[in-house]
Structures are given as C-alpha cells and as structure tokens.
C-alpha cells in the first residue's frame, strides 16, 4: 500500500490515496499500527482520501488509537494540498466532504504547489446536547461559557501545578464537528497536560470524550495554546481546536474575532466572521511517501 506522510503545523498524519489504492478493510487496526512512532510510520493518525459523490474528495480520519473522528482541521488542509498537487482536482477552490459536512477550501498556490490553505470550518456548535456535554441535571442556558466545573470534575485544588499555572477551573465548550473543552490558565507551559489531558478527556460529562485545550491569552489578537487530542494524546497542533479556542475567546470576552494562535508546531490564523463561520488559514506540507508492506 502506497502512503504519503503530511503535516500541518506539526499535526502529522499518514494519508492513503483511495482514488488509486483500495480502501483498507480494517482502517481502525491499520491506524493503530501505522501511527506507532516506534514500530510504524509514526503519526497522529490515518487519513483516507476517498472519492465523493458530492465533492472533489472525501476525508475519513482515524486517530492513533483507531477511533474514527468526525473532523481534523489540519488534516483537511493537507487533503486539499494532496488533491491539488497530485492532480485529482486542479481547482484553487476545493470542496472536501468530511464528517462535519462539505467544507470549502481556498488554496494559496506558488510554482504549481499548494503552500497554505484557508478552510471555511462552518459555524460552531454551542448547544450542550449537540457538543455533547451532559450534566446530572439540566444546565441553565444554552451555552457552556466560563462554566465553573469544580462540582462535576474533581480537580485536586491542593496540587502544586494548580498554583504554578494559575489554573482557572472555568471551562468553555465548543464543537467544530468534534467536541472541545477550553480552559484559560495563566501559564500554559506549567500545565501537566500529560496527566490533565487524559483525566479530562474521559470525564463522564463528556459522553463521546473530548479534545482538551489550555490557552494563555497575550492580548485580544494573540494566544498560545496546547492540546490533548481525543484518541491521540498530546499533539503539536489541532486545527479544529484552534477554531474552538477562537470561538471560546470571543464568547468569554477574552479575545477578538480575529486571532493568531501559537501552537507548538506553528501558527494558525483564525477569524470568526460576522456571518458565524470560522475561517482557519495555515500551511500544509508533504513530508515523504513510501510503501506499507503488510
């Protein structure tokens, strides 16, 4: 099986062109094997680039643990680059079918190759039941914004890291087709994400698990964020998560509608437009190709 390794601001996936390759019979098992950074190719997951009856291509995304996810913002930018650069469709505006629906992507092309991609990620989903977030009793209001979760999530308030990072136990929840929870500590580097991330991901109030983001606000146009991705762990970037952070910042009154997000793997430009759609712009890079022998 021929594959291509690609990355968007360090969020790396193994891509299979299912226009020319057969769809793997067990993509969940393949994702676990091929994503292993010691015994496989090494990646945050597996993405299949498939034919679509409605769009220029269809993206199916599997996390490193084999679970299938609805959407990946960095991944869909790389799908668009692959579709254009490899001649599947040479339009500089593409439509890609995802678990979120069909997304429109505008390509920035230089010397015949895609360099950056702007994705219209659609409108955020804010209703708790659709994110989904479930509480033991109905939540007052139709949004979870700066919501104090101490009574639902048993943080150890005496832990040293809580003081070190200036932990704020208020959360904001957003779906960009996949679920996200955002916290705003004073210092993101002091958050022990390797333990806080999996602890939060599997809390009972998140019935489909959750992507976890900690965000340090520098000013109304600039933040630094770190991510624990559902099913993949700590990653260098999360495109849907950056979009969720932009929305959460506006809802919580912490940032403006245009935002530069610094992620460990690079920067993303974000805009929550007045029409309600979130636009994300960032690079897409092809790293190498190879053959998977199994």
- What share of the residues does DSSP label as strand, in percent? 35-45%
Q: What is the C-level CATH assignment of the largest domain?
A: Alpha Beta
Helix/strand-derived category reads alpha+beta
Any idea what the radius of gyration is?
19 Å
Spatial gap, N to C terminus = 8 Å
The H/E string reads EEHEEEHEEEEHEEHEEEHEEEE
Largest sheet properties: 18 strands, mixed
Number of strands: 18
Look at the structure and give the mean pLDDT: 95
Estimate nothing, just give the exact number of structural domains: 2
What fold name goes in the CATH topology slot of the largest domain? Diaminopimelate Epimerase, Chain A, domain 1
**Name of the CATH superfamily of the largest domain:** Diaminopimelate Epimerase, Chain A, domain 1
Assigned CATH architecture of the largest domain? Roll
Unreliable residue stretches: none
Helix content: 10-25%
Number of helices: 5
- Overall spatial form: globular
């Amino acid at each position: 099986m021929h594959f291509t390794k690609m990355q968007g601001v360090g969020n790396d996936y193994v891509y299979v062109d299912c226009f020319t390759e057969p769809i793997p019979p067990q993509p969940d098992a393949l994702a676990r094997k091929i994503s292993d950074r010691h015994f496989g190719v090494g990646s945050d997951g597996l993405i299949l680039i498939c034919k679509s009856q409605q769009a220029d291509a269809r993206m199916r995304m599997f996390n490193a643990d084999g679970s299938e996810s609805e959407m990946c913002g960095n991944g869909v930018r790389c799908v668009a680059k692959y579709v254009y650069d490899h001649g599947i469709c040479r339009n500089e505006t593409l439509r890609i079918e995802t678990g979120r629906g069909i997304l429109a992507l505008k390509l920035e092309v230089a010397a015949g190759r895609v360099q950056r991609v702007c994705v219209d990620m659609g409108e955020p989903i804010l209703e708790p039941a659709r994110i989904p977030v479930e509480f033991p009793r109905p939540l007052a209001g139709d949004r979870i914004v700066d919501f104090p979760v101490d009574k639902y999530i048993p943080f150890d308030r005496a832990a040293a890291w809580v003081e070190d990072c200036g932990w704020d136990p208020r959360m904001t929840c957003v779906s960009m087709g996949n679920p996200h929870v955002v916290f705003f500590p004073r210092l993101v580097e002091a958050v022990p994400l390797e333990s806080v991330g999996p602890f939060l991901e599997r809390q009972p109030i998140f019935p489909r698990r959750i992507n976890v983001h900690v965000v340090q606000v520098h000013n109304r146009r600039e933040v630094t964020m770190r991510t624990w991705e559902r099913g993949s762990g700590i990653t260098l970037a999360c495109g849907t998560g950056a979009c969720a952070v932009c929305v959460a910042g506006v809802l919580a009154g912490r940032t403006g509608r245009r935002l530069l997000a610094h992620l460990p793997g690079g920067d993303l430009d974000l805009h929550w437009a007045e029409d309600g759609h979130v636009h994300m712009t960032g690079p897409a890079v092809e790293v190498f190709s190879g053959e998977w022998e199994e």
